Predict the 3D structure of the following.
Amino acid sequence: MTEYDIAIVGAGAAGMAAAIAAGEAASGSRLRIVIIEGARKPGAKILVSGGGRCNVTNQVVSPKDFWGGPRPTIRKVLGAFDVHHTIEWFRQLGVRLKLEPDGKYFPVTDNAQTVLDARLERVATLGIQLLPSTRVTRLTPRSDHFEIGLSQGSPISARRVIIATGGLALPKSGSDGAGMSMLQRLGHTVVPTTPALAPLILGKSPDLGGRFSEFSGASMEVRLRLRRNRRVIAELTGALLFTHFGVSGPVAMNLSRHWLRARLADERAALQVTMGSPALSSTEAADHWLIQQAAKHPRQHLATILATLFPDRFAKALAAELGDARTLAHLTREERLRLAGMLSDLPLPVTGTRDYSHAEATAGGVDLHEIDPRRMQSRKIPGLYLCGEILDVDGRIGGFNFQWAWSSGHVAGWAAVERD
Ligand SMILES: Cc1cc2nc3c(=O)[nH]c(=O)nc-3n(C[C@H](O)[C@H](O)[C@H](O)COP(=O)(O)OP(=O)(O)OC[C@H]3O[C@@H](n4cnc5c(N)ncnc54)[C@H](O)[C@@H]3O)c2cc1C
Protein backbone atom coordinates (compact mmCIF):
# COMPACT_ATOMS: atom_id res chain seq x y z
CA MET A 1 0.00 0.00 0.00
CA THR A 2 1.53 3.35 -1.01
CA GLU A 3 1.97 5.52 2.07
CA TYR A 4 1.54 9.28 2.18
CA ASP A 5 1.80 11.81 4.97
CA ILE A 6 -1.12 13.90 3.75
CA ALA A 7 -3.91 12.94 1.32
CA ILE A 8 -6.25 15.64 0.07
CA VAL A 9 -9.52 14.45 -1.41
CA GLY A 10 -10.81 16.83 -4.11
CA ALA A 11 -8.77 19.20 -6.27
CA GLY A 12 -11.27 22.05 -6.35
CA ALA A 13 -10.65 25.54 -4.97
CA ALA A 14 -10.41 24.42 -1.33
CA GLY A 15 -8.44 21.23 -1.97
CA MET A 16 -5.81 23.00 -4.07
CA ALA A 17 -5.52 25.81 -1.50
CA ALA A 18 -5.01 23.19 1.22
CA ALA A 19 -2.44 21.31 -0.87
CA ILE A 20 -0.43 24.45 -1.62
CA ALA A 21 -0.59 25.64 2.01
CA ALA A 22 0.55 22.20 3.22
CA GLY A 23 3.23 21.91 0.55
CA GLU A 24 4.66 25.35 1.36
CA ALA A 25 4.54 24.82 5.12
CA ALA A 26 6.24 21.43 4.71
CA SER A 27 8.91 22.60 2.30
CA GLY A 28 12.22 20.96 3.08
CA SER A 29 10.66 18.30 5.30
CA ARG A 30 10.04 15.71 2.55
CA LEU A 31 6.42 15.11 3.43
CA ARG A 32 4.61 13.03 0.82
CA ILE A 33 1.44 14.83 -0.24
CA VAL A 34 -1.15 13.56 -2.71
CA ILE A 35 -4.35 15.08 -4.10
CA ILE A 36 -6.97 12.60 -5.28
CA GLU A 37 -9.45 14.02 -7.77
CA GLY A 38 -12.43 12.23 -9.26
CA ALA A 39 -12.61 14.32 -12.43
CA ARG A 40 -10.28 13.84 -15.38
CA LYS A 41 -9.33 17.51 -15.22
CA PRO A 42 -9.35 19.34 -11.88
CA GLY A 43 -10.83 22.77 -11.29
CA ALA A 44 -13.95 22.57 -13.50
CA LYS A 45 -15.83 24.89 -11.17
CA ILE A 46 -13.04 27.47 -11.13
CA LEU A 47 -13.22 27.59 -14.94
CA VAL A 48 -16.97 28.27 -15.10
CA SER A 49 -16.99 30.66 -12.14
CA GLY A 50 -17.80 34.34 -12.47
CA GLY A 51 -18.99 33.84 -16.06
CA GLY A 52 -15.57 32.36 -16.95
CA ARG A 53 -13.73 35.27 -15.29
CA CYS A 54 -13.53 33.83 -11.72
CA ASN A 55 -14.53 36.34 -9.07
CA VAL A 56 -11.83 35.30 -6.60
CA THR A 57 -12.73 37.41 -3.59
CA ASN A 58 -14.26 40.70 -2.47
CA GLN A 59 -12.85 43.98 -1.22
CA VAL A 60 -14.73 43.58 2.06
CA VAL A 61 -15.44 40.14 3.49
CA SER A 62 -17.16 39.66 6.81
CA PRO A 63 -19.01 36.75 8.47
CA LYS A 64 -22.23 38.61 7.61
CA ASP A 65 -21.67 37.67 3.97
CA PHE A 66 -22.19 34.02 4.89
CA TRP A 67 -25.02 31.86 6.13
CA GLY A 68 -25.08 28.42 7.69
CA GLY A 69 -22.99 27.53 10.74
CA PRO A 70 -22.12 29.84 13.66
CA ARG A 71 -20.71 33.23 12.59
CA PRO A 72 -17.93 33.30 15.28
CA THR A 73 -16.54 30.08 13.75
CA ILE A 74 -16.70 31.54 10.25
CA ARG A 75 -15.00 34.72 11.57
CA LYS A 76 -12.08 32.72 13.01
CA VAL A 77 -11.46 30.90 9.77
CA LEU A 78 -11.72 34.02 7.59
CA GLY A 79 -9.47 35.89 10.03
CA ALA A 80 -6.71 33.30 9.74
CA PHE A 81 -6.41 33.87 5.98
CA ASP A 82 -8.19 37.07 5.02
CA VAL A 83 -8.61 39.14 1.86
CA HIS A 84 -5.15 40.72 2.24
CA HIS A 85 -3.54 37.28 2.54
CA THR A 86 -5.56 36.17 -0.48
CA ILE A 87 -4.42 39.07 -2.64
CA GLU A 88 -0.80 38.53 -1.59
CA TRP A 89 -1.13 34.78 -2.25
CA PHE A 90 -2.41 35.46 -5.77
CA ARG A 91 0.51 37.83 -6.32
CA GLN A 92 2.95 35.13 -5.24
CA LEU A 93 1.25 32.69 -7.62
CA GLY A 94 1.80 35.22 -10.40
CA VAL A 95 -1.89 36.16 -10.83
CA ARG A 96 -2.52 39.90 -10.94
CA LEU A 97 -5.94 40.93 -9.70
CA LYS A 98 -8.11 43.93 -10.44
CA LEU A 99 -10.79 45.43 -8.26
CA GLU A 100 -14.10 46.24 -9.96
CA PRO A 101 -16.37 49.10 -8.80
CA ASP A 102 -18.78 46.68 -7.08
CA GLY A 103 -15.99 45.37 -4.83
CA LYS A 104 -15.33 42.13 -6.71
CA TYR A 105 -11.79 40.97 -7.50
CA PHE A 106 -11.02 39.26 -10.81
CA PRO A 107 -7.75 38.27 -12.51
CA VAL A 108 -6.61 41.08 -14.83
CA THR A 109 -6.77 38.58 -17.69
CA ASP A 110 -10.56 38.23 -17.15
CA ASN A 111 -9.91 34.53 -17.64
CA ALA A 112 -10.51 31.88 -14.96
CA GLN A 113 -7.94 29.64 -16.67
CA THR A 114 -5.21 31.96 -15.31
CA VAL A 115 -6.36 31.19 -11.77
CA LEU A 116 -6.48 27.44 -12.33
CA ASP A 117 -3.16 27.25 -14.21
CA ALA A 118 -1.34 29.15 -11.44
CA ARG A 119 -2.59 26.67 -8.84
CA LEU A 120 -1.77 23.58 -10.87
CA GLU A 121 1.70 24.94 -11.59
CA ARG A 122 2.34 25.61 -7.89
CA VAL A 123 1.06 22.14 -6.94
CA ALA A 124 3.50 20.61 -9.44
CA THR A 125 6.42 22.81 -8.33
CA LEU A 126 5.87 21.76 -4.73
CA GLY A 127 6.18 18.11 -5.77
CA ILE A 128 2.60 17.32 -4.77
CA GLN A 129 1.28 14.26 -6.57
CA LEU A 130 -2.06 14.67 -8.34
CA LEU A 131 -4.14 11.56 -9.04
CA PRO A 132 -6.85 12.58 -11.56
CA SER A 133 -9.81 10.40 -12.67
CA THR A 134 -9.66 8.70 -9.27
CA ARG A 135 -12.48 8.84 -6.76
CA VAL A 136 -12.07 8.06 -3.10
CA THR A 137 -14.64 5.36 -2.39
CA ARG A 138 -13.81 4.52 1.20
CA LEU A 139 -12.04 6.11 4.15
CA THR A 140 -11.17 3.94 7.14
CA PRO A 141 -9.52 5.50 10.19
CA ARG A 142 -6.91 3.23 11.80
CA SER A 143 -4.96 3.99 14.99
CA ASP A 144 -2.32 6.24 13.39
CA HIS A 145 -3.31 6.46 9.73
CA PHE A 146 -6.22 6.22 7.30
CA GLU A 147 -6.81 3.58 4.68
CA ILE A 148 -8.16 5.13 1.51
CA GLY A 149 -10.02 3.05 -1.05
CA LEU A 150 -9.84 4.32 -4.63
CA SER A 151 -12.05 3.84 -7.68
CA GLN A 152 -9.00 2.57 -9.57
CA GLY A 153 -5.73 1.04 -8.41
CA SER A 154 -4.84 -0.29 -4.98
CA PRO A 155 -5.84 1.47 -1.76
CA ILE A 156 -3.37 3.94 -0.30
CA SER A 157 -2.71 5.10 3.23
CA ALA A 158 -2.11 8.54 4.73
CA ARG A 159 -1.36 9.80 8.21
CA ARG A 160 -3.65 12.77 7.71
CA VAL A 161 -6.53 13.37 5.36
CA ILE A 162 -8.10 16.62 4.19
CA ILE A 163 -11.60 16.26 2.74
CA ALA A 164 -12.37 18.96 0.17
CA THR A 165 -14.99 17.23 -1.96
CA GLY A 166 -17.32 20.24 -2.20
CA GLY A 167 -21.10 20.29 -1.97
CA LEU A 168 -23.70 19.29 -4.54
CA ALA A 169 -23.82 22.34 -6.81
CA LEU A 170 -23.02 21.72 -10.47
CA PRO A 171 -22.82 17.92 -10.06
CA LYS A 172 -21.40 17.42 -13.55
CA SER A 173 -18.18 19.01 -12.23
CA GLY A 174 -17.73 15.96 -9.95
CA SER A 175 -19.14 17.48 -6.74
CA ASP A 176 -22.03 15.15 -6.01
CA GLY A 177 -22.13 15.05 -2.20
CA ALA A 178 -20.28 11.72 -1.97
CA GLY A 179 -17.82 13.24 0.51
CA MET A 180 -20.68 14.24 2.80
CA SER A 181 -22.08 10.70 2.79
CA MET A 182 -18.62 9.35 3.57
CA LEU A 183 -18.30 11.67 6.57
CA GLN A 184 -21.80 10.79 7.73
CA ARG A 185 -20.79 7.13 7.76
CA LEU A 186 -17.82 8.14 9.94
CA GLY A 187 -20.16 9.74 12.50
CA HIS A 188 -20.33 13.37 11.35
CA THR A 189 -23.63 15.24 11.25
CA VAL A 190 -24.67 16.67 7.91
CA VAL A 191 -27.04 19.63 8.12
CA PRO A 192 -29.66 18.88 5.39
CA THR A 193 -28.61 20.42 2.10
CA THR A 194 -30.45 22.58 -0.43
CA PRO A 195 -29.23 24.48 -3.48
CA ALA A 196 -28.00 28.02 -2.81
CA LEU A 197 -27.42 30.82 -5.29
CA ALA A 198 -30.00 29.39 -7.68
CA PRO A 199 -32.47 31.33 -9.87
CA LEU A 200 -36.08 31.55 -8.62
CA ILE A 201 -38.93 29.99 -10.58
CA LEU A 202 -42.15 32.00 -10.94
CA GLY A 203 -45.61 30.49 -11.35
CA LYS A 204 -48.75 32.14 -12.64
CA SER A 205 -49.78 35.32 -10.91
CA PRO A 206 -52.83 37.55 -10.90
CA ASP A 207 -50.49 40.54 -10.60
CA LEU A 208 -49.50 42.39 -13.73
CA GLY A 209 -51.95 40.14 -15.56
CA GLY A 210 -49.61 37.18 -14.90
CA ARG A 211 -47.25 38.71 -17.43
CA PHE A 212 -43.93 38.33 -15.64
CA SER A 213 -42.45 36.22 -18.44
CA GLU A 214 -42.99 39.16 -20.83
CA PHE A 215 -40.24 41.02 -18.99
CA SER A 216 -37.65 38.37 -19.86
CA GLY A 217 -34.33 40.16 -20.34
CA ALA A 218 -35.29 43.22 -18.26
CA SER A 219 -33.04 43.93 -15.28
CA MET A 220 -33.54 46.36 -12.42
CA GLU A 221 -32.40 47.20 -8.93
CA VAL A 222 -34.90 45.88 -6.42
CA ARG A 223 -35.42 44.97 -2.83
CA LEU A 224 -36.74 41.45 -2.28
CA ARG A 225 -38.53 40.51 0.91
CA LEU A 226 -39.23 36.96 2.00
CA ARG A 227 -42.03 36.49 4.51
CA ARG A 228 -42.78 33.28 6.36
CA ASN A 229 -46.27 33.27 7.84
CA ARG A 230 -46.34 37.05 7.25
CA ARG A 231 -43.10 37.73 9.15
CA VAL A 232 -40.16 39.14 7.15
CA ILE A 233 -37.29 36.63 7.47
CA ALA A 234 -34.99 37.95 4.74
CA GLU A 235 -34.65 41.30 3.01
CA LEU A 236 -32.04 41.74 0.29
CA THR A 237 -31.34 44.39 -2.32
CA GLY A 238 -29.50 44.15 -5.62
CA ALA A 239 -29.90 43.53 -9.33
CA LEU A 240 -32.76 41.34 -10.56
CA LEU A 241 -33.01 39.86 -14.04
CA PHE A 242 -36.29 38.54 -15.47
CA THR A 243 -35.89 35.30 -17.41
CA HIS A 244 -38.25 33.05 -19.37
CA PHE A 245 -38.84 30.86 -16.27
CA GLY A 246 -38.64 33.40 -13.45
CA VAL A 247 -36.00 35.67 -11.99
CA SER A 248 -32.24 35.49 -11.73
CA GLY A 249 -29.50 38.01 -10.95
CA PRO A 250 -27.61 38.38 -7.66
CA VAL A 251 -30.53 39.42 -5.46
CA ALA A 252 -32.76 36.53 -6.59
CA MET A 253 -29.93 34.02 -6.31
CA ASN A 254 -28.97 35.25 -2.86
CA LEU A 255 -32.59 34.91 -1.75
CA SER A 256 -32.95 31.34 -3.04
CA ARG A 257 -31.27 29.69 -0.07
CA HIS A 258 -33.54 31.54 2.36
CA TRP A 259 -36.63 30.41 0.45
CA LEU A 260 -35.43 26.79 0.35
CA ARG A 261 -34.33 26.77 4.01
CA ALA A 262 -37.72 28.15 5.07
CA ARG A 263 -39.49 25.48 2.98
CA LEU A 264 -37.20 22.81 4.46
CA ALA A 265 -37.96 23.96 8.01
CA ASP A 266 -41.72 23.83 7.46
CA GLU A 267 -43.18 22.62 4.21
CA ARG A 268 -46.59 24.01 5.08
CA ALA A 269 -45.40 27.52 5.97
CA ALA A 270 -46.88 30.32 3.88
CA LEU A 271 -43.93 31.83 2.02
CA GLN A 272 -44.30 35.10 0.19
CA VAL A 273 -41.70 36.94 -1.87
CA THR A 274 -42.27 40.55 -2.81
CA MET A 275 -40.20 42.97 -4.83
CA GLY A 276 -40.08 46.72 -4.57
CA SER A 277 -37.99 49.73 -5.39
CA PRO A 278 -35.04 49.91 -2.93
CA ALA A 279 -35.81 53.63 -2.54
CA LEU A 280 -39.34 52.98 -1.26
CA SER A 281 -39.21 50.87 1.87
CA SER A 282 -42.94 50.77 2.68
CA THR A 283 -46.37 51.54 1.23
CA GLU A 284 -46.34 54.81 3.22
CA ALA A 285 -42.94 55.81 1.78
CA ALA A 286 -44.13 54.92 -1.73
CA ASP A 287 -47.36 56.87 -1.25
CA HIS A 288 -45.43 59.87 -0.01
CA TRP A 289 -43.19 59.67 -3.11
CA LEU A 290 -46.25 59.44 -5.42
CA ILE A 291 -47.81 62.51 -3.80
CA GLN A 292 -44.57 64.43 -4.31
CA GLN A 293 -44.36 63.31 -7.94
CA ALA A 294 -48.00 64.33 -8.52
CA ALA A 295 -47.20 67.82 -7.23
CA LYS A 296 -44.05 68.12 -9.35
CA HIS A 297 -45.33 66.52 -12.56
CA PRO A 298 -49.15 66.82 -12.58
CA ARG A 299 -49.44 66.22 -16.35
CA GLN A 300 -46.80 63.55 -16.80
CA HIS A 301 -47.93 60.08 -17.83
CA LEU A 302 -47.81 57.55 -15.01
CA ALA A 303 -45.53 55.21 -16.95
CA THR A 304 -43.01 58.03 -17.45
CA ILE A 305 -42.86 58.70 -13.73
CA LEU A 306 -42.56 55.00 -12.89
CA ALA A 307 -39.79 54.68 -15.46
CA THR A 308 -37.59 56.69 -13.06
CA LEU A 309 -37.72 53.60 -10.78
CA PHE A 310 -37.99 50.66 -13.19
CA PRO A 311 -37.21 49.79 -16.83
CA ASP A 312 -39.73 51.14 -19.37
CA ARG A 313 -41.44 47.81 -20.09
CA PHE A 314 -42.03 47.16 -16.43
CA ALA A 315 -43.10 50.74 -15.70
CA LYS A 316 -45.64 50.55 -18.55
CA ALA A 317 -47.06 47.26 -17.21
CA LEU A 318 -47.45 48.75 -13.73
CA ALA A 319 -49.15 51.84 -15.15
CA ALA A 320 -51.44 49.65 -17.27
CA GLU A 321 -52.68 47.99 -14.08
CA LEU A 322 -54.32 51.31 -13.27
CA GLY A 323 -55.67 52.01 -16.73
CA ASP A 324 -53.80 53.46 -19.69
CA ALA A 325 -52.95 57.09 -20.41
CA ARG A 326 -53.37 58.24 -16.82
CA THR A 327 -51.46 60.85 -14.90
CA LEU A 328 -50.91 60.68 -11.15
CA ALA A 329 -53.47 63.44 -10.71
CA HIS A 330 -56.12 61.15 -12.24
CA LEU A 331 -55.71 58.44 -9.63
CA THR A 332 -58.17 58.08 -6.79
CA ARG A 333 -56.70 57.72 -3.29
CA GLU A 334 -57.44 53.97 -3.38
CA GLU A 335 -55.71 53.60 -6.74
CA ARG A 336 -52.71 55.59 -5.53
CA LEU A 337 -52.42 53.42 -2.42
CA ARG A 338 -52.67 50.28 -4.55
CA LEU A 339 -49.89 51.58 -6.76
CA ALA A 340 -47.83 52.48 -3.67
CA GLY A 341 -48.24 48.87 -2.49
CA MET A 342 -47.01 47.56 -5.86
CA LEU A 343 -44.00 49.89 -5.82
CA SER A 344 -42.87 48.74 -2.38
CA ASP A 345 -44.14 45.13 -2.13
CA LEU A 346 -45.26 43.60 -5.43
CA PRO A 347 -45.89 39.86 -4.87
CA LEU A 348 -43.61 37.60 -6.94
CA PRO A 349 -45.25 34.18 -7.38
CA VAL A 350 -42.15 32.15 -6.45
CA THR A 351 -42.87 28.41 -6.64
CA GLY A 352 -39.33 27.15 -6.09
CA THR A 353 -35.76 27.46 -7.31
CA ARG A 354 -33.79 25.76 -10.03
CA ASP A 355 -31.94 22.61 -9.01
CA TYR A 356 -28.30 21.89 -8.13
CA SER A 357 -27.35 21.87 -11.82
CA HIS A 358 -28.15 25.59 -11.93
CA ALA A 359 -26.99 26.47 -8.40
CA GLU A 360 -23.64 28.08 -7.64
CA ALA A 361 -23.39 26.78 -4.09
CA THR A 362 -24.83 24.41 -1.49
CA ALA A 363 -26.51 25.41 1.76
CA GLY A 364 -26.11 22.90 4.57
CA GLY A 365 -23.27 20.38 4.82
CA VAL A 366 -21.06 19.03 7.56
CA ASP A 367 -21.99 20.68 10.84
CA LEU A 368 -19.47 23.41 11.75
CA HIS A 369 -19.90 22.62 15.46
CA GLU A 370 -18.02 19.40 14.80
CA ILE A 371 -14.95 21.23 13.44
CA ASP A 372 -12.20 22.99 15.39
CA PRO A 373 -11.95 26.27 13.44
CA ARG A 374 -8.33 26.93 14.50
CA ARG A 375 -7.26 23.82 12.56
CA MET A 376 -10.31 22.82 10.50
CA GLN A 377 -9.88 19.49 12.20
CA SER A 378 -12.74 17.11 12.86
CA ARG A 379 -13.64 17.02 16.54
CA LYS A 380 -14.73 13.41 15.97
CA ILE A 381 -11.86 11.89 14.02
CA PRO A 382 -8.30 12.99 14.85
CA GLY A 383 -6.13 13.52 11.80
CA LEU A 384 -9.11 14.38 9.58
CA TYR A 385 -9.52 17.94 8.26
CA LEU A 386 -12.33 19.53 6.26
CA CYS A 387 -12.49 22.62 4.09
CA GLY A 388 -14.58 24.36 1.44
CA GLU A 389 -18.16 23.89 0.39
CA ILE A 390 -18.56 20.49 2.08
CA LEU A 391 -19.10 22.44 5.30
CA ASP A 392 -22.31 24.12 6.39
CA VAL A 393 -21.25 27.56 5.11
CA ASP A 394 -22.55 29.35 2.01
CA GLY A 395 -21.64 32.84 0.95
CA ARG A 396 -23.53 35.38 -1.09
CA ILE A 397 -22.59 36.25 -4.65
CA GLY A 398 -19.45 38.37 -4.93
CA GLY A 399 -16.40 36.13 -4.44
CA PHE A 400 -17.32 35.05 -0.90
CA ASN A 401 -17.54 31.32 -1.60
CA PHE A 402 -14.04 31.27 -3.05
CA GLN A 403 -12.78 33.28 -0.09
CA TRP A 404 -14.22 30.60 2.20
CA ALA A 405 -12.48 27.93 0.11
CA TRP A 406 -9.11 29.76 0.20
CA SER A 407 -9.36 30.53 3.95
CA SER A 408 -10.58 27.15 5.16
CA GLY A 409 -8.21 25.39 2.74
CA HIS A 410 -5.20 27.25 4.10
CA VAL A 411 -6.10 26.59 7.73
CA ALA A 412 -6.59 22.87 7.00
CA GLY A 413 -3.37 22.65 4.97
CA TRP A 414 -1.25 24.36 7.62
CA ALA A 415 -2.74 22.27 10.42
CA ALA A 416 -2.19 19.00 8.57
CA VAL A 417 1.60 19.53 8.53
CA GLU A 418 1.82 20.51 12.21
CA ARG A 419 3.32 17.97 14.60
CA ASP A 420 0.96 16.40 17.13
C1 LIG B 1 -21.43 28.28 -12.17
C2 LIG B 1 -20.72 28.65 -10.88
C3 LIG B 1 -20.12 29.90 -10.78
C4 LIG B 1 -19.48 30.27 -9.59
N1 LIG B 1 -18.86 31.48 -9.52
C5 LIG B 1 -18.22 31.85 -8.37
C6 LIG B 1 -17.50 33.07 -8.30
O1 LIG B 1 -17.32 33.78 -9.29
N2 LIG B 1 -16.98 33.43 -7.09
C7 LIG B 1 -17.10 32.62 -5.98
O2 LIG B 1 -16.62 32.99 -4.90
N3 LIG B 1 -17.71 31.43 -6.04
C8 LIG B 1 -18.27 31.03 -7.21
N4 LIG B 1 -18.88 29.80 -7.28
C9 LIG B 1 -18.83 28.93 -6.10
C10 LIG B 1 -17.45 28.25 -6.00
O3 LIG B 1 -17.10 27.75 -7.27
C11 LIG B 1 -17.48 27.10 -4.98
O4 LIG B 1 -17.97 27.57 -3.75
C12 LIG B 1 -16.09 26.53 -4.78
O5 LIG B 1 -15.58 26.08 -6.02
C13 LIG B 1 -16.12 25.37 -3.79
O6 LIG B 1 -14.84 24.82 -3.72
P1 LIG B 1 -14.59 23.38 -3.12
O7 LIG B 1 -13.17 23.09 -3.40
O8 LIG B 1 -15.08 23.31 -1.74
O9 LIG B 1 -15.51 22.41 -3.96
P2 LIG B 1 -15.47 22.04 -5.51
O10 LIG B 1 -14.95 23.15 -6.32
O11 LIG B 1 -16.84 21.54 -5.81
O12 LIG B 1 -14.41 20.87 -5.61
C14 LIG B 1 -14.62 19.59 -5.09
C15 LIG B 1 -13.79 18.61 -5.88
O13 LIG B 1 -13.84 17.34 -5.24
C16 LIG B 1 -13.94 16.33 -6.23
N5 LIG B 1 -14.55 15.16 -5.59
C17 LIG B 1 -15.80 15.03 -5.10
N6 LIG B 1 -15.98 13.82 -4.56
C18 LIG B 1 -14.80 13.16 -4.70
C19 LIG B 1 -14.35 11.85 -4.33
N7 LIG B 1 -15.11 11.01 -3.68
N8 LIG B 1 -13.07 11.51 -4.65
C20 LIG B 1 -12.25 12.37 -5.30
N9 LIG B 1 -12.63 13.61 -5.68
C21 LIG B 1 -13.89 13.99 -5.37
C22 LIG B 1 -14.78 16.95 -7.32
O14 LIG B 1 -14.58 16.30 -8.57
C23 LIG B 1 -14.30 18.40 -7.29
O15 LIG B 1 -13.24 18.60 -8.20
C24 LIG B 1 -19.47 29.38 -8.47
C25 LIG B 1 -20.07 28.12 -8.60
C26 LIG B 1 -20.67 27.74 -9.79
C27 LIG B 1 -21.29 26.37 -9.89
Observations:
- The radius of gyration is 25 Å.
- The CA atoms of residues 63 and 75 lie 5 Å apart.
- The chain has a mean pLDDT of 95.
- Residues 9-15, 36-39, 42, 45, 48-50, 54-55, 135-136, 164-166, 169-170, 173-175, 178-179, 360-361, 388-389, 399-402, 405 surround flavin-adenine dinucleotide (CB under 6 Å).
